[in-house]
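Re: the request from the purification team.
They wanted to know what the chain is likely to look like in 3D before they choose a buffer screen. I agreed to run a prediction and write the result into the notebook, where they can find it.
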Amino acid sequence: MKAFFEARRLTYQYPRGPLAVRGASLEIAPASMTAIIGANGSGKSTLIRMLAGLLRPASGEILLDAIPLEKWQPRRRAREIAYMPQVTVTAFPFPVVDVVLSGRSPHVPRFQLESAGDRERAMEALESTGARHLAHRSFTALSAGERQMVILSRALAQEPRLLLLDEPSNALDLKHRAALMRTLARLREQRALSVIMITHDLQLTGSLFDRILALRSGEVAAQGAPPEVLRSQILSEIYGEPNVRAERIGGQTLVWIEA
């Protein structure tokens, strides 16, 4: 299926620092799931923030429907792409439903308030992540895992075509991690939602994602279907750990480190 979102030879350099990303390219098809993996400091968050339009590449281009991302008006772009950061800080004790409702802002006409329909979409987003019971609680009173599910709900309330996630399962226990992936898989089928997700959970990437992009020192070290990337030699090079082992068993890839 033809890609609707492309990144071509992206490079980014922070002020007075080395290149954080060098020549990264990827293509995203509708209803696809792509994992970004790599060691800490390999450029994963920098890359996904460029894809979200939060950082401007030093070189290269990002295309949405064959139109450069910077030419999209911010509100229009926010209807197409939603971004969930690794950490969200909210100092004010807003009700959860209001936090999620803020995700509807790209759909609300200027100088108007959210409608009953927007509130319904917000509640549906909470329902989809299993967080509806939190709707009237204070966001600041939630656990780290509960906050992650609420912020995911806010991103889903935007009703995007492309969802960018920076380590969303980092603060989630096993139950909520499974719920997250079931939600993404369901929305992929129901809405043709595409997902790009940074993760350190290699078992997860092998079973649920179509493609994996592996970064090493800001460069794409490998890219392809999970069986092509989740190989002992490739993972050892990416993570700088010679004892990483990967083996394909019964259609699943198991990854471990030998003692």
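For the purification team: The chain has a mean pLDDT of 92.
Please add any questions underneath this entry.
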